[in-house]
Amino acid sequence: MTSSDEYESQELEKTDITQLICGKSFASHLNLKQLYQACLSLPSSASIVNFLQENCRLFLEEKESDALPEETKVRYEIQKKIGSGGMGKVFLVEDYDLGRQVAMKIIDSDLAKKNIYNILEFIEEAQTIGHLEHPNIIPVYDIGILEEKGIYFTMKYIRGENLAQIIIRLKKGNKSTHATYTWTRRAQIVQAICDALDFAHKKGIIHRDLKPSNIMIGEFGEVYVMDWGVAKLVLQDGVKKLIKPLPSVDTDSSPGGNPLNITGTPLYMSPEQAEGRIKDLSAATDVYAIGGIIYELFGLDLAHNGRNREELFHAICNKKPKRLDKLKNSGQGTVPIEFHYITKKALAKKTKDRHSSVKEVKKEIQSFMNGQFPVVCFHTGLKRFIRSFERLLDNYPKPFILSILVIIVFSVVAYFVKA
Fold first, then answer.
1. What is the rounded distance in angstroms from the CA atom of residue 416 to the CA atom of residue 220?
2. Residue 342 Cα distances to 289, 307, 325, angstroms
3. How do the domains of the chain map onto residue ranges?
């Protein structure tokens, strides 16, 4: 695939492409033919360009065919808007071919009209998700072009809520939510996120925009990592690739300021993202984001904050977050100290000081759940000692109880003999 500069130069020569790719121009048979011819002149080796060429060709064939009644050609009907991402809006739609509801993401018309690179980014998002077939990553079903709407792709419709909504209720002290999302349940959610990211990292793909609102919890407890719109391939055939930033950042959660030439959500950025060190982005960037999610999910507070973007970025790059086990919330007890040590390492400023992979983060969480967390202080040592006795009681109940009784009897006899 050619570089972004080459795409932009091609765009200047073919200004009609982006005007035709989205909006009512699809209703024009003549314009579609022009678009098809323009696509043919683009590099044929690029899979995204192949997609454009093929869909234009198929769309033209549909226009020229009167063999089927018009109503049989309508597959999707938009029901309502259910969300938005960096590149477009997400709708709940009815899929009449398969008789089910799906989520459809349609490219933002303004972005589509700016330049063809945005269109390629949108298609790349669909292809990225399609490349990641994993139980904790939302599956893509279809990709195509809707007349008068533009390019779209459909995904599984998740009935549930995102992690940000759950955290809000936890912060408010909702008893039912706290009863459902115990320390163990929260740990299991993080482990599922780690599973999805570990799979993606092995494919050479990093997410770059992990945050609670991008984690969906289904009605049966399923965990999905969503919105791979800024995900990038950083490793292919053992060679690290340069990651091109998008024109701006997601400002939904950012506390003011002008967008910088970086990608992600400011409140959840790693130091290398905040400083715009594009070449340094790697799997360690997602490890940092996991640390931020753990911190907020367990401590019910942000690892870093600021009154404006500059103050926030300064905190991310220079300040240590408060100890997780020292944060207080009236709705829950003290956060297990093990998660302080997990987040302390995951949120390290330097990538070399973080966990080597998300798989290592998952392993440490599992060691907490098994009562075998490494002894790093008196507190963790005492907890591990107590859990060792619990396991002895579970595995050898009769010998263990007998031993305790013998010790008690000997202690009582010794006391009276000495008296």
1. 60
2. 12, 27, 11
3. 4-156, 160-369, 378-418
Q: Does position 401 have pLDDT exceeding 90, yes or no?
A: no
Read off the pLDDT of residues 39-54 as tens digits, 9 standing for 90 and up.
555 555 455 556 665 6
CATH 3.30.200.20 fits 4-156, yes or no: yes
Task: Tell me the sheet residues that pair with 159.
Answer: none
In CATH, what is the architecture of 160-369?
Orthogonal Bundle (1.10)
pLDDT tens, 116-175? 778 888 888 888 888 899 999 999 999 988 877 788 999 999 999 999 999 999 999 999
| The pLDDT of residue 36 | 54
pLDDT for the residue numbered 301: 94
Residue 47: its pLDDT value, please?
Answer: 58
For the chain, what is the HEC assignment? Answer: CCCHHHHHHHHHHCCHHHHHHCCHHHHCHHHHHHHHHHHHCCCCCCHHHHHHHHHHHHHHHHHHCCCCCHHHHCCEEEEEEEEECCCEEEEEEEECCCCEEEEEEEECHHHHHHCHHHHHHHHHHHHHHHHCCCCCECCEEEEEEECCCEEEEEEECCCEEEHHHHHHHHHCCCHHHHHHCCHHHHHHHHHHHHHHHHHHHHCCEECCCCCHHHEEEECCCCEEECCCCCCEECEECCEECCCCCCCCCCCCCCCCCCCCCCCCCHHHCCHHHHCCCHHHCCHHHHHHHHHHHHHHHHHCCCCCCCCCHHHHHHHHHHCCCCCHHHCCCCCCCCCCHHHHHHHHHHCCCCHHHCCCCHHHHHHHHHHHHCCCCCCCCHHHHHHHHHHHHHHHHHHCHHHHHHHHHHHHHHHHHHHHHHC
Identify the pLDDT of residue 380.
67
Least confident of 207-216, 237-246, 344-353: 237-246
